[in-house]
What does this fold into?
Amino acid sequence: MCRANSRSCRMHLKFAEEACGLQLSLTGILGFRTIHQVDAKPQLVLVAKADKQVNHDGSPIETSPTQHDASSFEDKEISSPHAQNNSSDILRIPRLLHSEMMSDVNENSTGSSSNLLLSAIQQTVVLAQCLHLRRRSRDDELSRWEMGPYIESIDAQSHSLYSIRSFCDILRIRWESGRSHTKERALLMMDNLVEIVNKALPVAAQRIQFAFGVYMPTVPALRKEYSELLVSCGMIGEALHIFEDLELWDNLIYCYQLLDKKAAAVDLIKARLSETPNDPRLWCSLGDVTTTDAHYEKALEVSNNKSSRALRSLARSSYNRGDYETSKTLWESALALNSLYPDGWFALGAAALKSRDVEKAVDAFTHAVQIDPDNGEAWNNIACLHMIRKKNTAAFIAFKEALKFRRNSWQLWENFSHVSLDVGNLHQALEATKMVLDLSSNKRVDVELLDKLMRKFEERSSTPALTSFDIHQTSVANSLSDTSNESGHPESVLEAPREYSSLLEMLGNVLQQVIRNGGSGDIWGLYARWHKIKGDLTMCSEALLKQVRSLQGSDMWHDSNKFKRFAHASFQLCKIYMEIASSTGNRRELITAEMHLRSSVKQAVNFQETEEFRALDSCLSEVRKLLAATSSDGA
It folds into this structure.
């Protein structure tokens, strides 16, 4: 239904453009947005093509209030299209670099709408397009900037009716009040607009022109918007008087709470309750001020359990007390009454998560991102819950959404790296690992993940992995398991030689980044395995030697776990020495291996009954046989 209404609205606006002989389009033109800007930047401007020009003959329908005698309209500075407020360095209308080239509208009737004179009906069509853009888009910074060219095109007109100019100012105020650099100017514009509404001039005959052609708010609505703008600017005292005059009690109570005047707020609420004792909003406000659950329960009672605000307040109170099951139930009841409340769905997910209801938590966070797709925290929670449920593909998608809004969280990148590996996306896993290193200043190194990645490359490589005597030496090795994607198929990306080489280089860059900042023994071992895959046995032996040296220490000969890690690295180092000697025919590596193994076996007297000791002793015998063979061959 909403899409059909939007299409119908666009169709009617198109017919309106054709009827008044106007064609509108957006384009980019180099220009200046601020007073002190030096280099011209692309500015989004509205380009209009009019079939006929405005005939400024002084007729009432086309006459701006600024054209009348000064006695008829004293506050002309409000309606002056080119008035620049000194409260901001941001220009109300961008100064275009090529505006001179587009100024000759009498010849071709085409150009920037700031240079083209538009009739009153054409100006209302432009504002209608702007209002439609605001209503069909999300209320965010991007959509407000898209409205800017329409507002600036009316601001640039030298002749505008009072109602058109006023509504254009309201749209500009709503646009600029959300930006810190222009918020003061928006407040001054609203103050002037409210003042002139209450004045006798301009007269009714001028005000009434096109009053039914623009969407002007009523005077009370305008004053309320002005008061809310005052509150957002911190001028709560001035807003209080307006809210009290308009009898907007909820806003007035909120202002008292901001000013920390709880006694005044309670007195006001009780005075209102004496007149309307069955108003659930007042009971909820009293509960907010006094932080008493009984008032929320009273609000539920007088509303016949239809007050979603009371239910939300009770749900928050239960959550703060640690009663997560009750909080979850209350949030479900509140959202059943009002489901378009993204913060409520997020709170329901948090309560369900605390009460160990994972299914309900996933469902709640999913509803939250459906209403507010920019909720990065909700996306992160969805991804983590899918990780717990072993749904890696869903977790991968959710993490990608979460990272759009929380790119500086190394924890999020770390989780994403694990999920990427689980779904078989090695490129994303390596990129995420590098992001973790960059964000943590190379302090967060996931050795387990790097080991899993290395195993993938070793399985694909034609070069056999480093020799092992099938003993799990480290806690990391004990925790490793087979990592395949959810479908159970191996990663096809490693089957392509070009992709394989690129990913292998990425892995090497990650390892080198860690080593440059001081790598541990495990990292040197991984670096050695990487050189083994590359076929560089010399660099592999050097990396293994550094791993062995990093594991050496006086306490190693009295600690079983440390000895196991040392024995495993020594075993791999000597096997590489043997391979180098076999390929080069040089005895130097064999002599080095024999000396290292002999020293290690001699000192490991406390571990003679272990399998690691027997593996080292067996390797020593093998090295001695090779030395004897090469010695006899030389003889």
